[in-house]
Each structure stands twice: as C-alpha cells, then as structure tokens.
Design brief:
The complex is a heterodimer of chains A (328) and B (648).
Chain A: H1 16-45, H2 50-55, H3 61-71, H4 77-90, H5 103-140, H6 146-161, H7 164-178, H8 191-220, H9 223-230, H10 235-273, H11 278-288, H12 291-319, H13 322-325
Chain B: H1 3-15, H2 17-39, H3 41-45, H4 71-106, H5 109-123, H6 127-138, H7 142-169, H8 172-179, H9 184-221, H10 232-239, H11 248-275, E1 313-322, E2 329-339, E3 344-348, H12 355-363, E4 371-373, E5 376-379, E6 382-383, H13 389-399, E7 400-403, H14 407-410, H15 417-429, H16 433-446, H17 452-456, H18 465-476, E8 483-487, H19 495-511, E9 515-519, H20 523-529, E10 532-537, E11 540-546, H21 557-564, H22 605-609, E12 615-616, E13 622-623
Parallel strand pairs in B: 3-9, 3-10, 7-8, 8-9
Antiparallel strand pairs in B: 1-2, 1-4, 1-5, 5-6, 10-11, 11-13, 12-13
Classes of the chains: A mainly alpha (328), B alpha/beta (648).
C-alpha cells in the first residue's frame, strides 16, 4: 500500500483512509442537499394551500395573504428554494405559524431532552448488548450450556419483539402505576429519564445482543482464534484483543441502523412520558399544520440520521482499517 | 427458486416450532378479524355511562373505557381494521418498492446508479420517521397514514428487489428466453416474477408485522385512525390518559399489537430461514453429540520426573475422546511416541486418521466437547497434565510452536502482524511492548521477510500466503520452542513457497535443536524431510519407521498402500495410480480386531478378532500387524490374496 510516498506528484496515491474520507464526505454533501430539497418540497407537495389549511377555513383572506408573504410563498419557486437552502445553512428556519417564535429557537429549546434520552439509551444498548452477547457466546460456544442459550434466546426474543412505545406503556403500568417507584411523565430530574431510556433501549439491546452473540460465535470458530489459543494467551486477551475487534465491525454496522430507529422511537416515547423534546414538538406541530416547524424538524431528524451514519462509518474504519480499502 | 420450492418454504416453516406456533397465531388473528366485528359489534360500541372506566369484572373481563364500552370487545373488533390497514399499507409498499427496485435494472447504467444511490440513502432513514413526515403531506387520517406507512416501507422493498431483479435479468434463462424471441412482458410474467415472488412474499409477511406496529404508533400519536373509528393504536391513544384508572384499556390493545406483529414476523422469519434467504454460519465440531458425561478414562501411572537427555516430547497412551450417546468416541486411541531434539518426524495417514487431533491433544487444543488425556505427556521433561493451568500455559506458550494448515486464515485480520508476534513476548516473557516488537521484527527477519519493520506494521491481508505462513513460523519462534507442531503447513501453497516454508522448518530444527512433528498427507514431502515417520490409521499408530525405509522397507500393508498411492514414488509410472480400496474407519464404529482388516489384502480370521499391538519390526521401527512384511523380497499387497496366511 502507498505508505511510502514517491516524490513525483503524478505517482502519488492517496492513502486509503483519505480516499475513504473524501468519498464519504462527498456522499454526505449530496445526501444533505437531497434532505434540504425534500424538506423544501414537503410544503409544496401538500395538496391545496398549506397556509389556508393551517389557518383554517374561517380565517380572513387578508390574514392568509399576509402569512403567505411572511413564509415567502408569494415569491418565485426558485427564489424560495435558494432562500430555504440559505436559511438551512445559516440556521434561519423561519417562524412558527402558531407560536410566532423562530423555529430555530423552538428546536434548540427542545433538542437537549431528546439528545439526552437517545444518547443515554444508545449507551445503555452498547453497555448491555456487547458484554452480554460476548459472554453468552463464550459460555455457550460449541454447544456448551444449552439451557443458558435457550434462556438467552427466549428473553432477547421477547424484548426484540415488543416495540419501544408499547414497552413504554407497560413500564408506566408496572413502575409508575402499580409500584409507584418512578415518575410517569414530565421532566422532573434524572429519575424521570429512567423509564423512557429503558423503553428505548430494551428492544435494540436485545437485537444487538443476539447479533453480538452470533458474530462472536462465528469469530471464535475462525482459524486465527485457534492460533491465539495455540499461543496460550490468557482468556482476557483472547476475547478482548483477538475476538472483539472482529465482532465490532458487524456490530457497528448494525448499531447505525439501531441508533437511527432509536431516534425515531424517541418521538413516541417522548409522547408517552410527556418529555419536552423535539418529538413532542413534532407531534404538536403536525396536527396544527405548523409547516415551518415541521420542515425544521425534518432537517434536524434527517441531519441526525446522516450524522449517525457518518460517525458509524468513521468508527468502523477506525476499528477495522480494512473496511476503508473496500470500495463501497 | 421455482414455484415448487415456494410451496416448500411455507410448508417447511410450518414444520419448525416457531413457524408452527406463529402460523397458529396467524390463523387465530385472522379468525378474530373475521368473526369479532360481526359478533361483538354491539358490545364494543354500547355506551354505558353508568360503567365508565370500570376495572376488571365478570361482565367486562378487561373493564370499560372512558365511555363505558367493553375493552375486550373493542380490542377484538379492532383486529379487522388494524389488519386491513396494515395489509393495505404493505401492498402499497411492495408494489412501489418493487417498481423502484427494478428501476436500476431497467434504466441505463448511470440513471440506474442514481436510483440505486437514492434507495441506499432512503433505507438509512427509519420507516417510522419517514411515515410521520409523509403523513404531513398526505394529511392526518386513515388514508394519509396508509399511504405514508406504505411509501415509508417502499425503500426496504426496493433494496431487497434490486439485487434480485439484477440477478434474474442477467441469468441464463432470461437471456435464453430473449434469444428465443420471447416478448418482454412474457419474460417478466413467465420468468422474472416466479423467481422473485417467493422471497418478496416472505419479506412482505414480515413487513405486515412491521406495518401493524407502525400503524399502532401513528394512530397512537393521533395521526392515523380518527375516532369514532378505532384501531389498536387509537385505543392506546384514548386509553393511556386513564392508565391509572383502568390500565387494561391501554394494555389490551398493546398486547394485541404485539401478538399480531409477532405472528407475522416469526412466520415470515421461519419461512425465510427455510428458503435460505439468510443463511447463518455454524460452528462445526467433529462428532458433536450430547452432553459430556463423566470422563471414563483416567490417566494411569504416575508422572516421571524429567530425566537428563529425555526426549523433547514423550507421549504415552494419548487418547482423544468425544462424548456420544453410545459412549465416548475416540478418534485418537492410545497413541505413544517420543520425539528427539533436532529431528523432524513425519506423521502421515489419510484424512480422518486422527493426525490433527493428536497434535491438538498435545497442544491442549482439542475442541469442546472433546477431551484428551495420556498416561504420560511430557514436554522437555515436564509432565504437562499435572501442571496448574497458568504454569501449563506458560510452558506450552514458550516451549511449543504450532503452525497450522491455512496461513490465509491463521492470522487475525484485525491486528497488525507485528503485534500478533509481539504479544507472545509480552505475555510469556513479561517484555515491554517496545522490546517485544523489536523481537518480533527480528523474528520476521529470521523467517526471511524483507523490510520487516514495515511489514510488522501491516495487516495480514497485505501479506501473501507464503509470507503469512513464514510469519506464523516466526510467531512460533518468539519463544524457545522445544517442539514445533506443523499441521499440513504447506497445503494450499504453491510449490516454490512450499519449499521456503519447509526450509524454514528444517532450519528451526537444526539451528534451535527443536523437534518438529510434521503432519502431512503428502508422503513425498515427509519422506524427503523427516528422519522418522509415524503412520496413523483409525486413530492409532500402526507403524513407526525410519524415513529411509519408507519406500522399500515398510512392514505394514497400510504403509505400503499409502506409498504405492503416491505417483512420483511408485516405480512404474506406466501403471494406473494405485488407490487404497475401501473407506477409512468411522471412529464411532471402529472395526473389531485390526482397524485396517476390512481393506487389507492380507487379512485373515485373526485380523478380524484380535488387534495387533505395536511391536519392534525388522526395519528398526515398530509395527502393529499380524502379517508384517519381514523382508524386501515379498509381493506387494496390491497383488491380491497371495499373501494371506503368512504367519506373523
């Protein structure tokens, strides 16, 4: 590989990680442009007049016209498009129809709560799934302890099939209504985050633990693990140094998807637990037809999904530099 | 994937426990969806202001909701609408997704890549998030939610269809149909659709489960079904605020969603695994049977203290056993031999003769649930079986080097080569990382890898096969190996590389006075390199002879047959290649008497009843045979039954 750089510029080959970074960032730029375009197109895809729909049939025409002007809907299409892109880049996403507050402010106020439960839930997923999946794999390898395998499969199977919002309802019933040990709803200190985080994390943790176990079993059967055992390395090194990095690639690839769907889950879970996040902002804005807020939220959610995928791809390359060599 | 196999995938799913259970659930859900709206319509919609938000009672098994309506009846009645909406959304998703996924195949190269990139981008977005924003466009309500969930599931159908469509379009039979002048729509209906239908139906079955959950989510948020109509999500929406008063009003529809969702998901998954849509790799263990019962053989005799001038390796009575319902199976039975320093000893035999498991038994690497024990197992005079675990690991880690068959997979692809060598020094010699890496570079140099500093920083996949095998040997030389176990070290390497690897082994043997056990099915390699050869058959050593006697002085008929089967060693190249008739014995059902007797031309009645033990032979080795060839003048065994009855 081109770690030795030749003096002539024409002969210089970019190192694989750099080529990967350029390719990946170019893809991100195209994706972002598509996202902004989709968010812009959304308001124009709504049948009829969105402003009339938002203000209601009884609103006077003068008010509708004023609102249209404020939203810039009276300007030519391409001007609106450029203005929207400019706004998206500079962080000016317009004002809310119902509250008259800047969309950016509204979202900035609500974003931390969502990030907190999504972030905590994701950390919980990793902290539970990786050690659990790996140790169950180590315990049940080559058909050892069939009962442990059965219990693990059953428990993770159950949690993997219950969607986050239904688990949330069940958790409310058990811990808040029946046992009365944790608050049901609202943001009242750290205790109020426990149930939402558990509701969000349980399903993905179960799915990931199953994948980690299957991957670990596959890796433990590889020839290089036999080499590691033949070197008489301690179990700690065999599992952590030799098995873990090979398990991580598949795990990370999947955790990108899991984290994205976990983000989607926050919308429902915030509603169940009445948390002041962007999810509850979204569920309030959709029936109110507050389109500027919905557009802004589309950008935020879409941007977060793209960011998650970028970070995961970067982590994969760091953990497993081979993947940068693969053309994707 | 013909229509025949399509039927078999669903039928096969019914035969799996999960598939059968899911199918029963599916039938139940369908029955409820058909019957409940007719039978329970009255009970579900009867408003009873006197019985608002009542708990569980005899007249209302799951209590009543905020208008005094029976929760159980409503949950059951809601099955039909919930199911209908999910099926409708899945149908929309399937049709749109298949059309989108087929586009890259239909369109030209560049437009196809564009669509393909778009699909990849869309798949990254969670379906529920897409559905929520699509609801904004299509409008809140049943119709909008069906469209939104349908379209939101389209990308995953498209992603699934894309490679399927491409592979079918480029398949031989479609090309043949085209050549025959079959019209395009006939190609699609007769050739393409039947082949993609099965996997798509399986995916759609799973997707119905997801659509049920998504619809429950949207209706719960108030974006889906609007009252007075109700599906499970809408019931959840109206029941949740009253969860303190009647939890059943929120829990019952939730449980119904999970049951129906699980039924579709699990049935689809079961069919998918039968159809082989997703094939999992499995860990394969030889003779994997039931639990290991008690180890029914114990090391006999007491270990000797290693005497001066003792052999490097002393194996006495090594047996490797795997549990089975019919008692332990022993692919290696009572194997005894010594290895001397500075000598290469070959271990030959057909595959399945127990060669590799003998090496695994020595190195403590017998795969679970197998066990290995011996009367005596001494490395450099140290009895390994009596050592505490940590000490045994240290002795084996420094005194034993192992070179495996496939160099392409023997090194960890996620770690740098240098680090993989260095850790031996770190773990077993307490060296610092830096010092261990320095030794690793020296060893890479010693195994003739050029630019070892640079190579040490590389990953195994940047090495060629021969370089990897040399690196593995270098890894073995990180300690002070008294014994090198080389298990088919040159198989799969080309001839020039084979020579390099064998030269390195010979060099390690002479320079470091290590004993080498060279396991190979390649008699010619063993004959040129080894001083002594051990021949294994059916898990036992049947002959132990000097390598120089291999060609002309082998006493055991099996050894002679092995030698005769090697083309470049058989004298007469005009003769057809000699093979050994018959099959190697199954370790689970070993033949009585001499294990080779069913295939041996010299076998007589005694051979079938009494097992010969390993006795000194005239060649200076040992042989286990009732009819060994005593001198060079005898007829070859392939000549037939002429030799029968020669006294032992």
């Amino acid at each position: 590989m081109a770690t030795v750089q030749l003096p002539t510029a024409a002969r210089w080959h970019a190192p694989p990680w750099l080529r990967f970074a350029v390719r990946r960032l170019a893809r991100l730029a195209v994706s972002l442009l598509l996202l902004v375009s989709a968010a812009f197109a959304m308001i124009h895809a709504i049948p009829g007049d969105p402003v009339r729909a938002a203000l209601g049939l009884t609103a006077p025409q003068s008010l509708v016209n004023a609102e249209r002007r404020e939203l810039g809907l009276d300007r030519p299409f391409w001007q609106q498009y450029l203005a929207f892109i400019h706004g998206a880049v500079t962080g000016h996403l317009g004002t809310s129809i119902s509250t008259k507050l800047p969309v950016t402010t509204l979202i900035a106020d609500r974003l931390p709560a969502t990030m907190k439960i999504a972030g905590l839930a994701f950390v919980t997923v990793l902290v539970v799934a990786l050690p659990l999946g790996m140790s169950v794999a180590a315990l049940t390898r080559n058909g050892r302890r069939p009962r442990t395998e059965l219990v693990f499969g059953g428990v993770t199977g159950v949690f993997a099939s219950i969607p986050d919002f239904l688990l949330g309802v069940a958790l409310v019933f058990v811990f808040a209504v029946t046992l009365k040990v944790l608050p049901v709803a609202g943001d009242s200190g750290p205790a109020s985050f426990v149930l939402p985080v558990v509701a969000l994390a349980a399903g993905p943790a179960a799915v990931l633990a199953r994948i980690v176990r299957a991957e670990t079993l596959r890796v433990l059967g590889e020839d290089y693990m036999r080499t590691a055992r033949a070197k008489q390395l301690p179990a700690r090194l065999i599992y952590l140094r030799h098995a873990l990095p090979n398990v991580m690639t598949a795990t990370l690839t999947l955790s990108g998807l899991l984290l994205s769907s976990l983000l989607a889950g926050t919308v429902l879970v915030e509603t169940i637990f009445a948390l002041p996040g962007i999810g509850t902002l979204l569920t309030q804005s959709v029936p109110n037809k507050d389109y500027p807020v919905v557009q802004g939220l589309a950008l935020v959610y879409g941007g977060l999904v793209l960011l998650i995928n970028l970070v995961v791809d970067a982590l994969i390359v760091i953990v497993d530099p081979r993947s940068a060599l693969r053309d994707r | 994937m013909t229509p025949d196999r399509q039927r078999s995938a669903w039928a096969g799913a019914l035969r799996t426990p999960t598939g059968a259970a899911a199918a029963v659930l599916l039938v139940l859900v369908a029955l409820v969806a058909i019957v409940a709206p007719v039978a329970l319509h009255g009970a579900a919609s009867r408003v009873d202001v006197a019985a608002v938000n009542k708990g569980v009672s005899a007249s209302h098994w799951l209590g009543t909701d905020g208008l005094g309506r029976d929760v159980l009846a409503r949950t059951l009645v809601a099955t039909r609408l919930s199911l209908e909406l999910a099926l409708l959304a899945t149908a929309i998703g399937t049709v749109t997704g298949v059309a989108l996924g087929a586009l890259p195949t239909v369109l030209g190269r560049n437009a196809g890549r564009l669509v393909s990139g778009l699909i990849n981008l869309l798949v990254a977005f969670p379906g529920l998030l897409l559905a929520i924003f699509l609801v904004v466009i299509f409008g809140v309500g049943e119709r909008g939610a069906v469209l939104a969930i349908g379209l939101a599931s389209a990308p995953s159908f498209a992603r699934f269809t894309e490679p399927l469509a491409a592979s079918v379009a480029h398949s031989d039979y479609v090309a043949a149909a085209r050549l025959l002048g079959v019209r395009r729509h006939r190609i699609t209906t007769r050739h393409v659709l039947p082949n993609v239908a099965e996997p798509l139906l399986i995916l759609a079955t799973i997707a119905v489960g997801s659509a049920l959950l998504a619809f429950a989510g949207l209706s719960f948020l108030g974006f889906g079904v609007q009252p007075p109509a109700y599906d499970w999500g809408q019931m959840l929406n109206s029941g949740l605020p009253d969860i303190y008063i009647n939890p059943a009003a929120a829990l019952a529809p939730g449980i119904a969603v999970v049951i129906a969702g699980v039924a579709f998901n699990f049935f689809g998954e079961a069919a998918a695994s039968v159809a082989g849509v997703r094939v999992e790799q499995k860990w394969i263990v030889p003779h994997r049977r039931a639990d290991l019962t008690a180890r029914d053989g114990q090391p006999a005799g007491t270990p000797d203290v290693g005497a001066a001038g003792a052999p490097v390796l002393r194996v006495d009575g090594l047996t490797v056993a795997f549990p089975s319902p019919a008692g332990p199976v022993t692919p290696v039975t009572d194997v005894s031999f010594d290895l001397d320093a500075g000598q290469i000893t070959g271990l030959v035999g057909e595959s399945g003769s127990g060669k590799s498991l003998t090496a695994a038994g020595i190195g403590g690497l017998v795969p679970h649930p197998g066990t290995a024990w011996a009367r005596r197992l001494e490395l450099a005079g140290i009895e390994l079986q009596q050592l505490p675990e940590a000490r045994r690991k240290a002795v084996l880690g420094t005194g034993l080097a192992t070179v495996f068959q496939d160099p392409m997979s023997a090194l960890n692809p996620a770690l740098r080569v240098g680090g993989q060598l260095a850790e031996v020094g770190e773990v077993h010699y307490g060296m610092t990382r830096r010092a261990a890496l320095k030794r690793a570079v020296e060893r890479l140099h010693a195994v003739r890898i050029s630019a070892p500093e640079r190579r040490a920083r590389q990953y195994p996949q940047e090495f060629s096969g021969g370089m990897r095998q040399r690196a593995v040997i270098g890894m073995g030389l990180m300690g002070e190996p008294a014994l090198i176990l080389a298990d088919e070290p040159t198989t799969g390497l080309d001839v020039a590389v084979q020579r390099q690897v064998l030269d390195l082994l010979r060099q390690a043997c002479t320079d470091r006075r290590a004993a080498v056990l060279l396991i190979s099915h390649d008699i010619s390699v063993v004959a040129t390199l080894a001083r002594r050869v051990l021949v294994m058959y059916g898990g036992r050593i049947v002959e132990d002879l000097p390598a120089r006697s291999l060609l002309a002085g082998a006493a055991h008929p099996y050894t002679r047959a092995l030698v005769a089967s090697v083309p470049d060693m058989a004298a007469d190249r005009g003769q057809p290649l000699a093979t050994i008739p018959g099959r190697p014995p199954d370790p689970a059902a070993p033949p009585s008497g001499c294990a080779f007797h069913p295939r041996c031309p010299l076998a007589d009645a005694r051979c079938g009843t009494e097992r010969p033990s390993l006795e000194p032979s005239p060649s200076g080795g040992r042989v286990a045979c009732w009819h060994p060839r005593l001198s060079a003048g005898h007829k070859a065994p392939a000549a037939g039954s002429a030799g029968k009855g020669v006294p032992g």
